[in-house]
Design goal:
The chain has about 110 residues and is mainly beta. The radius of gyration is 13 Å and the shape is globular. Strand 4 and strand 5 (about 45-50) form a beta hairpin. It has strands at about 5, 10-15, 20-25, 35-40, 45-50, 55-60, 65-70, 75-80, 90-95, 100, 105-110. The model has no long low-confidence stretch (mean pLDDT about 95). Strands 2, 4, 5, 6, 9, 10 and 11 form a seven-stranded mixed beta sheet that branches.
């Protein structure tokens, strides 16, 4: 069964850092784009970052320079390094590959 499992979320003070991980299982995704999305309370889900299978990356403007997306194709894992976190980054963060979604990991940034 193909599935995505996120981890690494938590409570952090503004200015702090977290590293999210998305473990993919069931098949290799080395030939597929992998992305992070987030959904804040009362808001629609929004794109955060994408790791293209050819090595390209793309970010939401609001996180450029603070977040870094990366992947390890050997372990089928997608990462999101989040630095200088702000209260507006508070959301549930989801991993997405093709039509697959993980259940999310919550990130709360206190001011």
């Amino acid at each position: 069964q193909v599935q995505l499992v996120e981890s690494g979320g938590g409570l952090v003070q503004a200015g702090g850092s977290l590293r999210l991980a998305c473990a993919a299982s069931g098949r290799s995704f080395s030939d597929t784009n992998m992305a992070w999305y987030r959904q804040a309370p009362g808001k629609a889900r929004e794109f955060v970052a994408i790791s293209g299978y050819l090595g390209t990356t793309l970010y939401l403007n609001a996180v450029k320079g603070r977040f870094t997306v990366s992947r390890d194709n050997n372990t089928n894992t997608l990462y999101l390094q989040m630095n200088n976190l702000k209260p507006e980054d508070t959301a549930i963060y989801y991993c997405n590959v093709l039509e697959l979604w993980g259940k999310g990991t919550p990130v709360t940034v206190s001011s």
